[in-house]
Amino acid sequence: MKKFFIAGFILVLACSATSAADKGALVPSAAGDADTDMQIKKESRQPMNMDEPMPTGMAKKGMKKGDVKAHALKKEAAMDEMMKQEEIKK
Amino acid sequence: MKKRSGLYTALTTVPSKQIQLLERRLFLKHSLSLGALVLLTGCDVTDVDAVQKTLWAMSKWNDRVQGWLFNPNKLAPVYPESAITKPFPFNAFYDEDEIPMVDPERYRLALGGLIRDKKPWSLAQLHALPQVSQITRHVCVEGWSAIGKWTGVPFRHFLERVGADLTAKYVGFKCLDDYYTSIDMATALHPQTQLTLMYADRTLPAKYGFPMKLRIPTKLGFKNPKHIAEIYVTNVYPGGYWEDMGYNWFSGL
Question: Which pTM was predicted?
Fold first, then answer.
């Protein structure tokens, strides 16, 4: 009888763990704290508002958050071609 | 308000000797600016293009001088754990609730340019590399500084491991938040330049650059890219976002 209860208890525990894992609560992670940090942030996280002014003191008047992406794309296009040529020469 | 109190804490922890050094450095920088202004007197200051060109030339010259003066063996000051700034300030061109989300399982570090082995690296592979810790000061161009404990892979070790061309001039970084920057190879090979994976003995928090940032205690804060997605090696001048906006490229301390 005792063994039956223990087996039943283990079965219930196993089912709960499987259910929790399905919901992503028990997924092991290499990132650990960062994952927790991100999960906490997830609810308040929002996509970057590209038209808002940059909040940093480095920004000049009129600079918007979206400017960084626009410049990054231009830079990538310019660098890609030059770096291809550089690798060919090597 | 929270940010301001963090900065206040950061500023109050700056030792007076450090402030004197900063003041001397500022004086020298202002002298250089004065020199640039004297040169500008030869320009027609209403000709914006001419002024811009002259200032760019001065900044490039400044980069070269800093490159010559850079001592690859001189270490940045290190501090005891008691000097660590709490909380370490968050600073970016976006707000804290807009930090990019990164899935650690799917993350891969891309490699490009003059690198022999360009296979992407998973976070687990990066964590398996030998790591060292440093307690160093992050100095922001905005005028504040803060001390933190950073742990990660010496960047030189990583570059050697992937077969990067160590004779190339530049190492560039593309980040998951669209930020981009680049550094000189001498700084990349400096013993304290670190591919940082942890902060204060814990996985690097999202606000400090998860999954990985480059920590360079010999350069200003904006030269320390966060959320790195790609590293490339090149002889083509890559610049950077703030650098392309007029901030000095070398920005050494």
Answer: 0.76
